[in-house]
Protein backbone atom coordinates (compact mmCIF):
# COMPACT_ATOMS: atom_id res chain seq x y z
CA UNK A 1 0.00 0.00 0.00
CA UNK A 2 2.83 2.40 0.85
CA UNK A 3 4.54 1.78 -2.49
CA UNK A 4 1.35 2.58 -4.41
CA UNK A 5 0.87 5.79 -2.44
CA UNK A 6 4.48 6.84 -3.00
CA UNK A 7 4.28 6.08 -6.72
CA UNK A 8 0.99 7.99 -7.01
CA UNK A 9 2.66 11.00 -5.37
CA UNK A 10 5.58 10.75 -7.81
CA UNK A 11 3.15 10.56 -10.74
CA UNK A 12 1.45 13.72 -9.50
CA UNK A 13 4.80 15.47 -9.93
CA UNK A 14 5.71 13.57 -13.14
CA UNK A 15 2.41 12.84 -14.91
CA UNK A 16 2.61 10.27 -17.67
CA UNK A 17 6.09 9.09 -16.71
CA UNK A 18 6.38 5.63 -18.26
CA UNK A 19 8.45 3.76 -15.61
CA UNK A 20 6.46 5.32 -12.76
CA UNK A 21 3.13 4.50 -14.43
CA UNK A 22 4.11 0.88 -15.04
CA UNK A 23 5.39 0.52 -11.46
CA UNK A 24 2.22 2.15 -10.10
CA UNK A 25 -0.02 -0.25 -12.04
CA UNK A 26 2.07 -3.16 -10.77
CA UNK A 27 1.77 -1.89 -7.19
CA UNK A 28 -2.00 -1.60 -7.58
CA UNK A 29 -2.13 -5.21 -8.79
CA UNK A 30 -0.02 -6.37 -5.84
CA UNK A 31 -2.49 -4.60 -3.56
CA UNK A 32 -5.45 -6.47 -5.07
CA UNK A 33 -6.77 -3.50 -7.07
CA UNK A 34 -6.90 -4.81 -10.66
CA UNK A 35 -9.68 -2.45 -11.77
CA UNK A 36 -7.61 0.57 -10.66
CA UNK A 37 -4.54 -0.85 -12.41
CA UNK A 38 -6.68 -1.43 -15.50
CA UNK A 39 -7.80 2.22 -15.52
CA UNK A 40 -4.17 3.41 -15.19
CA UNK A 41 -2.92 1.16 -18.00
CA UNK A 42 -5.80 1.94 -20.36
CA UNK A 43 -4.98 5.64 -20.00
CA UNK A 44 -1.27 4.91 -20.41
CA UNK A 45 -1.90 2.85 -23.57
CA UNK A 46 -3.35 6.01 -25.14
CA UNK A 47 -0.09 7.84 -24.41
CA UNK A 48 2.14 4.95 -25.53
CA UNK A 49 0.14 3.05 -28.16
CA UNK A 50 3.29 1.71 -29.85
CA UNK A 51 4.78 0.08 -26.75
CA UNK A 52 4.24 -3.69 -26.78
CA UNK A 53 5.03 -4.01 -23.07
CA UNK A 54 2.15 -1.68 -22.18
CA UNK A 55 -0.25 -3.87 -24.19
CA UNK A 56 1.16 -7.05 -22.65
CA UNK A 57 0.67 -5.74 -19.11
CA UNK A 58 -2.75 -4.36 -20.02
CA UNK A 59 -3.88 -7.76 -21.33
CA UNK A 60 -2.79 -9.42 -18.08
CA UNK A 61 -4.51 -6.72 -16.04
CA UNK A 62 -7.74 -6.99 -18.05
CA UNK A 63 -7.72 -10.69 -17.24
CA UNK A 64 -7.31 -10.06 -13.52
CA UNK A 65 -10.08 -7.45 -13.68
CA UNK A 66 -12.41 -9.89 -15.46
CA UNK A 67 -12.62 -7.97 -18.76
CA UNK A 68 -12.31 -10.96 -21.09
CA UNK A 69 -13.04 -9.20 -24.39
CA UNK A 70 -10.47 -6.55 -23.51
CA UNK A 71 -7.89 -9.28 -22.79
CA UNK A 72 -8.18 -10.41 -26.40
CA UNK A 73 -8.11 -6.86 -27.75
CA UNK A 74 -4.97 -5.97 -25.80
CA UNK A 75 -3.26 -9.23 -26.78
CA UNK A 76 -4.09 -8.49 -30.41
CA UNK A 77 -2.44 -5.06 -30.16
CA UNK A 78 0.61 -6.68 -28.56
CA UNK A 79 0.85 -9.20 -31.40
CA UNK A 80 0.36 -6.51 -34.06
CA UNK A 81 3.24 -4.50 -32.62
CA UNK A 82 5.38 -7.64 -32.70
CA UNK A 83 4.47 -8.43 -36.32
CA UNK A 84 2.44 -11.54 -35.48
CA UNK A 85 -0.65 -10.66 -37.50
CA UNK A 86 -2.05 -14.20 -37.58
CA UNK A 87 -1.93 -14.39 -33.78
CA UNK A 88 -3.50 -10.93 -33.51
CA UNK A 89 -6.37 -11.92 -35.77
CA UNK A 90 -6.84 -15.15 -33.82
CA UNK A 91 -7.05 -13.23 -30.52
CA UNK A 92 -9.71 -10.94 -31.91
CA UNK A 93 -11.60 -13.96 -33.18
CA UNK A 94 -11.63 -15.31 -29.62
CA UNK A 95 -13.09 -11.97 -28.51
CA UNK A 96 -15.99 -12.13 -30.97
CA UNK A 97 -17.84 -14.92 -29.18
CA UNK A 98 -18.15 -13.18 -25.78
CA UNK A 99 -18.99 -9.91 -27.57
CA UNK A 100 -21.81 -11.31 -29.70
CA UNK A 101 -24.54 -9.70 -27.57
CA UNK A 102 -22.95 -6.22 -27.85
CA UNK A 103 -23.31 -4.80 -31.36
CA UNK A 104 -20.82 -1.94 -30.87
CA UNK A 105 -18.10 -4.16 -29.43
CA UNK A 106 -18.63 -6.78 -32.14
CA UNK A 107 -18.44 -4.08 -34.82
CA UNK A 108 -15.22 -2.61 -33.41
CA UNK A 109 -13.59 -6.05 -33.13
CA UNK A 110 -14.60 -6.86 -36.71
CA UNK A 111 -13.21 -3.51 -37.86
CA UNK A 112 -9.87 -4.26 -36.20
CA UNK A 113 -9.80 -7.69 -37.88
CA UNK A 114 -10.31 -5.88 -41.20
CA UNK A 115 -7.41 -3.56 -40.28
CA UNK A 116 -5.17 -6.58 -39.68
CA UNK A 117 -6.13 -8.08 -43.02
CA UNK A 118 -5.31 -4.76 -44.71
CA UNK A 119 -1.92 -4.71 -42.93
CA UNK A 120 -1.25 -8.20 -44.25
CA UNK A 121 -2.12 -7.08 -47.80
CA UNK A 122 0.18 -4.05 -47.45
CA UNK A 123 3.02 -6.35 -46.38
CA UNK A 124 2.37 -8.69 -49.32
CA UNK A 125 2.46 -5.70 -51.68
CA UNK A 126 5.70 -4.43 -50.11
CA UNK A 127 7.30 -7.86 -50.34
CA UNK A 128 6.34 -8.10 -54.03
CA UNK A 129 7.63 -4.62 -54.92
CA UNK A 130 10.77 -5.20 -52.89
CA UNK A 131 11.45 -8.58 -54.54
CA UNK A 132 11.05 -7.02 -57.99
CA UNK A 133 13.47 -4.18 -57.15
CA UNK A 134 16.03 -6.55 -55.68
CA UNK A 135 15.85 -8.92 -58.64
CA UNK A 136 16.77 -6.01 -60.90
CA UNK A 137 19.68 -5.00 -58.65
CA UNK A 138 17.95 -1.77 -57.59
CA UNK A 139 17.92 -2.59 -53.92
CA UNK A 140 20.18 -3.91 -51.25
CA UNK A 141 21.33 -7.26 -50.02
CA UNK A 142 18.76 -9.41 -48.32
CA UNK A 143 18.69 -12.86 -46.88
CA UNK A 144 16.32 -15.19 -45.10
CA UNK A 145 17.49 -16.28 -41.67
CA UNK A 146 15.33 -18.96 -39.98
CA UNK A 147 14.19 -18.26 -36.46
CA UNK A 148 13.34 -20.78 -33.77
CA UNK A 149 9.83 -22.11 -34.23
CA UNK A 150 7.96 -23.08 -37.39
CA UNK A 151 10.25 -24.00 -40.28
CA UNK A 152 9.04 -21.09 -42.40
CA UNK A 153 9.34 -18.35 -39.79
CA UNK A 154 12.31 -16.08 -39.46
CA UNK A 155 13.72 -12.68 -40.20
CA UNK A 156 14.03 -11.18 -43.67
CA UNK A 157 16.90 -8.74 -43.81
CA UNK A 158 16.40 -5.69 -45.98
CA UNK A 159 19.59 -3.65 -45.97
CA UNK A 160 20.28 -3.07 -42.33
CA UNK A 161 16.59 -3.36 -41.31
CA UNK A 162 15.12 -6.64 -40.15
CA UNK A 163 11.53 -7.51 -41.00
CA UNK A 164 10.17 -10.08 -38.55
CA UNK A 165 7.84 -12.41 -40.37
CA UNK A 166 5.73 -14.81 -38.33
CA UNK A 167 5.12 -17.22 -41.17
CA UNK A 168 6.52 -16.23 -44.55
CA UNK A 169 4.69 -19.00 -46.42
CA UNK A 170 1.27 -17.94 -45.17
CA UNK A 171 2.17 -14.28 -45.77
CA UNK A 172 3.04 -14.87 -49.41
CA UNK A 173 0.34 -17.42 -50.16
CA UNK A 174 -2.66 -15.46 -48.88
Order of helices and strands: HHHHHHHEEEH
Categorize the overall geometry.
Answer: flat
- Poorly predicted regions are 142-174
The structural class is mainly alpha
Individual helix count: 8
CA-atom Rg in angstroms: 20 Å
Main sheet record: 3 strands, antiparallel
Description of the molecule:
The chain has 174 residues and is mainly alpha-helical. Helix content is 70%, strand content 9%. The chain contains eight helices and three strands, in the order αααααααβββα. Helix 5 packs antiparallel against helix 6. The protein is flat, with a radius of gyration of 20 Å.
Tell me briefly what this model is:
The chain is mainly alpha-helical and 174 residues long. Helix content is 70%, strand content 9%.
Identify the notable features of this structure and list them briefly:
9% strand, 174 residues, 3-stranded antiparallel β-sheet
